[in-house]
Amino acid sequence: MSVDLRGWIRDVPDHPKPGIQFKDLTPIFAEPAAFRAAINWFDDQVLKRDPDVIAAIDARGFVFASPVADRLGIPLALVRKSGKLPPPVIRNQYSLEYEDLSAIEMRSDALSKGQRIVIIDDLLATGGTAVAAAELAEELGTYVVAQIFLVELAYLDGRERITNRDPDCEVVAHIVYD
Ligand code: AMP
Fold first, then answer.
1. Is ligand 1 within 6 A of the CB of residue 125?
2. Could you report the per-residue pLDDT of 48-84, keeping only the tens digit for each?
3. Of ligand 1's atoms, which has the minimum distance to the CA of residue 153?
4. Could you tell me whether strands 76-81 and 99-107 are parallel, antiparallel, or unpaired per DSSP bridges?
5. In this structure, how many other beta carbons lie within 10 angstroms of the beta carbon of residue 96?
6. Sheet strands side by side (includes 76-81)
7. What is the pTM assigned to this prediction?
8. Sign of the torsion formed by the C-alpha atoms of 19, 21, 26 and 29
9. Is residue 80 in contact with ligand 1, taking CB distance under 6 Å?
10. CA distance 125 to 70
11. Using CA atoms, how far apart are residues 170 and 159, in angstroms rounded to an integer?
């Protein structure tokens, strides 16, 4: 049975700031058939790229990436909001759609030189978070072969921001809002 995941995404206007159309994905987590359909989609996308490691972005990226890493038997590395991981960490500052300055971190030993990485997050908006995560992965000597999102807000041009920086990185999204 195919599940139309758009039906499980709730629009929340003006959250967390006026002018932001927030896409609430918690109805997907609350409906097992929808959650499974989302994970199955991520599984297929990750399998096609055959990465050495999946890097997942705090926090909704963790929800999708964890079952995929388990099912496919691929190591999972966490990209966390700053101050959560124990040292040694590397850090990167960036802006996202509704927050001017934020920072993410990875353990310096989370990835090894030469590995092929895919990055998973729930949603691509301006691409600030995705680019910051890719920069961290590259600082550790790895190659980001794909950035994979359940949802893309195409009107914010995040895809262009990722590919302008790295034309070799595939950008994949299941549900695109134009
Ligand atoms: P950006 O860095 O602008 O691409 O923002 C992407 C990150 O912020 C993702 O981790 C999303 O979870 C979150 N995010 C940004 N904008 C939205 C939105 N309109 N609805 C839901 N999540 C969003």
1. yes
2. 999 999 999 999 999 999 999 999 999 999 999 999 9
3. 19
4. antiparallel
5. 17
6. 89-96, 99-107, 76-81, 53-57, 116-124, 143-153, 170-177
7. 0.97
8. negative
9. no
10. 27
11. 9
